[in-house]
Amino acid sequence: MHVLEHKHQIARLKEELSSPKRVLITTHQGPDGDAMGASLAFYQFLKKMGHDVAVVTPNDYPEFLNWLPHNGDVVNYMRQKVLAEDLIANADYIFHLDYNQLRRSADMTNTLANATAVRVMIDHHPEPNLLVKYSFSDTTASSTCELLLTIMQAWNNDLIDSDIATCIYTGVMTDTGCFSFPNATARTFTVASVLLSYGIDRTMIYDRIYDNFSAQRMRLMGYCLNDKMEVFPEYRTALISLNLEEQRRYDFVVGDSEGFVNLPLSIKGIRFSAFFLEKEDKVKISFRSKGDFSTNDFARKHFKGGGHLNASGGETKMALDAAIRQFRELLPAYQKALNAL
Ligand SMILES: [Mn+2]
After folding, report:
1. Which of 112, 136, 250, 315 is the most buried (most CB within 10 A)?
2. Which residues lie below 8 Å from residue 80, measured CB to CB, with a gap of 6+?
């Protein structure tokens, strides 16, 4: 992290935001725990400073996040388009949290592109590509929440409270797979320790995120593992797919397939996993890996996506079967990389 550069930027932002402003916080489509945790933490922080703040998400997010403090204040562009467009057009400042390419804001992209606000990006994904006045980009941060906490500490540490800490902890916990992925560093654990000092209830947070599924979702997981998982030992790879008919059969709701992509990585020797989810107009694909195999490169090159080294996503307009076929046909070219130590 360019600590000095961040420090200078924070000092200038502090100066610019020393009087009340209209601030819009936004994040990527299909917001996850990190996106919502960061957005709602920063929302509270800026509100405490007296700003007129709004959080606008491009679309729905999983129900297991709707207990986060101030969740009820979130504006959903898909469902409240007129209000959201008004907020975007009239904002003095727009903060882009947990994404670094405008197109990741999906249907909001054009409205955001036309906004006249001063832009700030706070993100931890590689290869930022967003025109902003202030850029806080740190690919060594486990999560946007981890990075945001350090920014808030430098900005005004006194404003951080247990509700803000709860939001931040949620993002750090979910982006690190409960502190198990390689992106959880010494700093991550220091951040976790700081957050615990605010008296947050970490077992409650875990319970609400991970032990909050329907019986149907557990049955769907069983079906995926039993009937839908394909394993390719020669490529140390596995995939799972779900078509629309199967989703209907299991009363699928947003968030139900969260984490499914990680399941095959529990198999001895498997280092690369893909999860294909059929949507009405496209197929969404999640990728996970262990070690040095870059799912980010793979997703960027073949499936119009990207993300992190070990976790990324993409999509295609191809039919589900064709997308799976393409994935399988790509594997031989990566055999060496997937079998390297
Ligand atoms: Mn993130």
Report:
1. 136
2. none
Query: Would strands 118-123 and 134-137 be described as parallel, antiparallel, or unpaired?
Result: parallel
Contact 162, 188 (CB under 8 A): no
What is the reported pTM? 0.91
Q: How many A from CA of 105 to the centre of ligand 1?
A: 14
User: How many whole angstroms from 233 Cα to the centroid of ligand 1?
Assistant: 30
What string of pLDDT tens digits covers the 341 residues of the chain? 566 789 999 999 999 999 999 999 999 999 999 999 999 999 999 999 999 999 999 999 999 999 999 999 999 999 999 999 999 999 999 999 999 999 999 999 999 999 999 999 999 999 999 999 999 999 999 999 999 999 999 999 999 999 999 999 999 999 999 999 999 999 999 999 999 999 999 999 999 999 998 999 999 999 999 999 999 999 999 999 999 999 999 999 988 999 999 999 999 999 999 999 999 999 999 999 999 999 999 999 999 998 989 999 999 999 999 999 999 999 999 999 999 96
Placement of tokens 């979910």 in the chain: 174
How many angstroms does the Cα of residue 245 sit away from the middle of ligand 1?
31
Identify residues whose C-beta is under 5 A from ligand 1, the ion.
Answer: 34, 98, 143-144, 175
What span, in angstroms and rounded, lies between the C-alpha atoms of 37 and 65? 9
Domains and CATH numbers, the chain: 3-210 (3.90.1640.10), 215-339 (3.10.310.30)
CA-CA distances (angstroms) from residue 102 to 130, 192, 212? 6, 30, 32
